[in-house]
Amino acid sequence: MEDLYALDFDGVICDSCEETALSAVKAAKVRWPSLFDGVDSALEDWIVDQMHTCFILLQLRPVIETGYETLLLVRLLLEMRLPSLRKSSVAEGLTVEEILENWLKIKPVIMEEWSENREALIELSGKVRDEWMDTDFTTWIGANRLYPGVSDALKLASSRIYIVTSNQSRFVETLLRELAGVTIPPDRLYGLGAGPKVNVLKQLQKKPEHQGLRLHFVEDRLATLKNVIKEPELDGWNLYLVDWGYNTQKERAEAASMPRIQLLQLSNFCTKLK
User: Fold this and answer.
1) d(Cα 29, Cα 51) in Å, to the nearest integer?
2) Residue 217 belongs to what H/E stretch?
3) Which one has a higher pLDDT value, 123 or 1?
4) What global pTM score does this model have?
5) Is the pLDDT of residue 67 over 80?
6) Which of 28, 88, 96, 241 has the smallest number of Cβ neighbours within 10 A?
7) Which fold has domain 3-14+146-273?
């Protein structure tokens, strides 16, 4: 029997934390230029460092699902450090730890107080990354890395591979081509805009050519796997939480207690794909 693997991208195939942090700061400077007038290089470096740390941890919780949220995080960090810029009611006295614990509650508050629009921020995030790629492709690529062994595993995979991600497809295509030497056909890449991952899995399992295949879904977000478990229609999927991506030991322990979810090590993952 053949196997089909639906793979998340960030945190499973690619460690994109550095690129995400730097892109978020670049985009924030475009969206709110006046806020950065009084920001010196030391403070900007601090923001980038906190973004890098916070984004990892936020994914580990996990809370951030799409890249536009990182722009909000940049501005929030800036308001925490510079009270004169403060427009958010939640920024005063806020700590990084509290952001990590309460991001899902904080996000709608700051979106409303700053009069921000999700789709506009998504568009801006993509535009800034496109411009970075166009003007300094080498540095952009260098801010991303594939996890060890993944490139060879993808090249040698005998299973049917699909990418199911909240990242924008054009960036995923470029990273796979440049870092892994792999070309994923467009019909096997479901990126931002394809809808919830549970819906993508339903589409995949209904395709006539997939009937009789063993179905596997590999994620680094426990919350996403929990959403799959809630859907009886998806009971046929084997579910995996990776132990090298953006998740915590607490989440891995919780996953280990759930019969539907298997913890997956990187070496085993690479072996499975081959």
Assistant:
1) 14
2) strand 214-219
3) 123
4) 0.86
5) no
6) 96
7) Rossmann fold (3.40.50)
Helix (H), strand (E) at residue 270: helix 266-273
Cα 121–Cα 45–Cα 122 angle in degrees, nearest 5? 10
Rounded distance between C-alpha atoms, residue 246 and residue 189, angstroms: 21
Domain boundaries, the chain: 3-14+146-273, 17-139
Crossing angle between the packed helical segments 41-60 and 17-31, to the nearest 10 degrees: 120
Q: What is the pLDDT of residue 61?
A: 43
Instruction: For Cα atoms 53, 167, 66, give the angle at the middle one, nearest 5 degrees.
Output: 55
CA–CA gap between residue 92 and residue 89 (Å, rounded): 7
Convert the pLDDT of each residue in 116-171 to its tens digit.
999 999 999 999 999 999 999 999 999 999 999 999 999 999 999 999 999 999 99
- For residues 143 and 112, what is the distance between their CA atoms, to the nearest angstrom? 32
As beta bridge partners, residue 162 has 6
